[in-house]
Amino acid sequence: MAKSEWSFKSAVEQSAALRAKKVSAVELTQGAIARIERHDGKINAICVRDFDRALAAAREADVALARGERKPLLGLPVTVKESFNIAGLPTTWGFLPQRDFKPAEDALPVARIKQAGGVILGKTNVPVGLGDWQSYNDIYGTTNNPYDLGRTPGGSSGGSSAALAAGYCALATGSDIGGSLRVPAFHCGIFAHKPTLNLCPARGETPPPFPAIPREGDLAVIGPMARTAADLTLLLDVMAGPDPLDAGVAYRLDLPAARHHSLRDFRVLVIDSDPLLPTDGDVRGAIDRLATDLSKAGTRIARESGQLPDFAETSRLYMRMLLSFLGAFFLPDELADAQAGASQLSPEDRSLAAERLRGITASHRAWVLDAGSRAGLRAQWCALFKSFDAVICPIMPTPAFPHDHLPDQSLRRISIDGRDYPYSDQLAWPGIATLPGLPSTAVPLGLSKDGLPVGVQIVGPWLEDRTPLKLAELIEREFGGFVPPKMFDD
């Protein structure tokens, strides 16, 4: 098989071929490098190339394979989101003043990938401060969607999703606080998994120049991205587990098995609408088709439940808690503007924009009260998952939208079936799983009538990550998964 023919093979397939000596790690890496050099001038997914060290790692992997070593990622090309530290390479988060910052040590997840034998090709592009569903900055430029170069690949892990969709690698890393794993997966037609909160330690996925120290995330997670559901599990198992400098002193990871292994055994709640943010016809249609297909396969499908938390109130709470976290890093001028805006809010204004302003300016007392409400929300989800195994719902309201780099995001708009909504209100759908810290797997469901990827997220029970991952794998097996973009399927 020619090197280029491995471009869209899964990591599981590539690993099997390496063990069977059908291909070498050097050949896989050379093929990936050649493909990046051929196509990335148009896509701009790989913002930092590390090809010399990748080829050296591939040669070491081939030696290890020859002597019979077996590691989960041995010889497999991988890309890493720019926000993860890699020793000797810049970590900027898109901040121009940090363009020359180079950490001395790998982030913990990067070290684990290397220890598992992964061959790191380089780093993938992000928006400034990881704060957008588009991936552009003044250091590395704009990343384009492989299905339509005039549209976003998603963000903030947009470089990773575009690299996977373009066939540069089979595995990539990402992170997520406002959908930054799931949104780019949705927009580029790939798979991603937002793990249960704090399942994967993020030491070293740190904005420069702050030190890489153990920390627990509040809403934020890191996780795997891939073109198949099984590959997500492969990379998750490498990344997951407590930080040995922190919780790992006492705790060990023992994730429960998936609840079921057949579609006919799953109990699934399917949701396609939100009182504050609707979905367009393409997204609703994809969800309806999936619900019908699952029902025909024997899955027990419900379209409503009194146990489901109030999505409107969930979204309002999420907006406050998310912006309370993000607002801590606002510049003084930005904070002053938010404070001025919040002071003018009417108590009756319960729009999502108003809740974001309230979050930026919230007192610690207000945050503690909101944290109590979040604990109550987690209890609601726990009760719901006694009746259901998973909840399937949208990730975003529309397929990938055209690039929109208007500096003030509050002035941007998203069109849903011809009606405009505030751009940042799109947080509502990713927030369904983010706020309670639940695992959520992004699954592609083919292409829209305009040739753009559509998909869903499968939200699962707390720390039962293998359940949504298994359901994603079964859906992929029965109903199809990743569809390569036509312009880059050579």
TrEMBL record:
Keyword set, alphabetical order: Hydrolase
Annotated PROSITE patterns: AMIDASES
Enzyme Commission code(s) on record: 3.5.1.4
UniProt-recorded Gene Ontology molecular function terms: amidase activity
Domain Amidase per the UniProt entry, residue ranges: 27-467
Pfam families from the UniProt entry: Amidase (PF01425)
Keyword Methyltransferase: no
Top-level enzyme category: hydrolase
Superkingdom to which the source organism belongs: Bacteria
Keyword Metal-binding recorded: no
UniProt GO cellular component terms: endomembrane system
Entry-linked InterPro entries: Amidase_CS, Amidase_dom, AS_sf, FAAH2
Protein name listed in UniProt: Amidase
